[in-house]
Amino acid sequence: MNIEQLLNFARSKNASDIHLTVGAPTAIRINGDLKKFDGMSDDIVHQTIISMLTAEQEQRLGKGEDIDFSFTCASGGRQRVNVFRYNGGKLAAAVRLLNEHVPSFKDISLPNAAIELTKERKGLILVTGPTGSGKSTTLATMVDHINNMRECHILTIEDPIEYIYEPKKSTIHQREIGTDVTSFNDALRSGLRENPDVILVGEMRDYETIRLAITAAETGHLVLGTLHTTGAAQTINRIIDVFPSEEQNQIRSQLSANLRGVISQILIPCVNQDRGRVAAFEILINNDACANNIRAEKVHQIEQVMASNVSSGMRTMNESLKRLARDNVITRDIALTYSPDKEEFKKML
Question: How far apart are CA 201 and CA 187, in angstroms?
Fold first, then answer.
């Protein structure tokens, strides 16, 4: 089985990921669960992984580097790949299967409040959640919506590029870390001189990237980025905690003024297994009450603000889980498993 056949097989099973491992069975992730299957010898697995690499990437792998890249197979499907060594030098690869086309808001059931955020002309919008929760897909959907609706310049900074956008009303430049530019920081610094209206930062992973992203939002750009956090309050605390203590009051002030919203999400197995998984969203819209709590170091009160502002589009994760369970999209037991506050959720039910 070559890489094309393996990818086609995984897609026929609606898999999200493939794990190729020399010395262990190949596994594919379906609806969040890993399913192992035999039939590929270690030699075939090794050759399958190597076949995805360029000569330059193979050299870097030989020097001990992990290799991140994306590629499109002959059938048109696009993949994000990480190749690495483990256990004394054995080869392994994690392959994320991407949608060929950017999905619509309806496809991912994104709430209207999140769609409204794309109308903002400046500020910071964050999409957060654990690995594999669909953050990149949500961001791509939001960017493509702007592409359809506004005549503007969109600059994306990604590692690696996942979705390829077809310019519509917007002009789009996609920059890949390691290929087009050396780092997120360098891309953001130069990006401010490239006259963008919208900047997508694939991952806000360190102090310098977060600082530059907030600066870009403050200077009149709409910045969309991701963080590996769960929940709106934790996201805000995570950003503040990245900064040295002497800078935290300033960053609270900047965040309170420039944050537009936080979309936090998780993927949950559906009752109907043919449907796969559904996203549950927590939505924070940075209104006056939220901004005051950020400035006053009362981030822990933000969830209460979200719970009392459902009419304006905000919702807590428990509220989202309750709606999905009420509509029989997910079971109550599954909803309780994913709830961040199980006692509160039991009362809500």
Answer: 9
Give residue 220's region: left, alpha or beta (phi > 0; psi -120 to 50): left
Give Cα separations from 147 to 155, 165, 167 (angstroms).
11, 9, 7
pTM: 0.90
Pick the CATH number of 3-98 from 3.90.700.10, 3.55.40.20, 3.30.450.90, 3.40.50.2000: 3.30.450.90
Structural domain boundaries of the chain? 3-98, 105-348
Kindly provide the b/e burial profile for residues 209-243, where b requires at least 16 CB atoms within 10 angstroms of the residue's own CB. bbbbbbbbbbeebbbbbbbebbbbbbbbbbbbebb
For each successive 10 residues of the chain (349 residues), what is the average pLDDT? 88 93 95 87 94 94 92 82 94 92 92 95 97 93 96 95 93 94 94 96 93 96 96 94 96 97 96 87 97 96 94 95 96 96 92
Strand partners, 78: 72, 98
Say if CB 193 and CB 212 are below 8 A apart: no
CATH top-level class for 105-348? Answer: alpha beta
Minimal CA–CA distance to 197: which of 135, 255, 152, 139? 152
Amino acid making up residue 128: T
What are the tokens at 319?
Answer: 């509220």
